[in-house]
Amino acid sequence: MAVSKVSLSIEEDVLAEARTRAGRRELSAYVNEALVRQLQHDRLGELLDEMENESGPIPSELLEEARALWREPAVPKHRRSA
User: Fold this and answer.
1) Domain extents for the chain?
2) Distance CA 51, CA 57 (A)
3) Does the pLDDT at position 5 exceed 80?
């Protein structure tokens, strides 16, 4: 895949932590991975907005149900009762 060099302005403390966390990896790879994740997040948000525009907002009861399920501890499939 082709790469391009860019110049970025990053807060010093953010850059210092990123360099520490990147460890043996190059900072460029660390920043690239962060940008990929952010772009995925942005596209997902756009898709959700589009779905809401087409179908309307998610009913509050379903949101509450989803939030409750999200908070529950994960139970391995083999331990779930039928």
Assistant:
1) 12-73
2) 9
3) yes
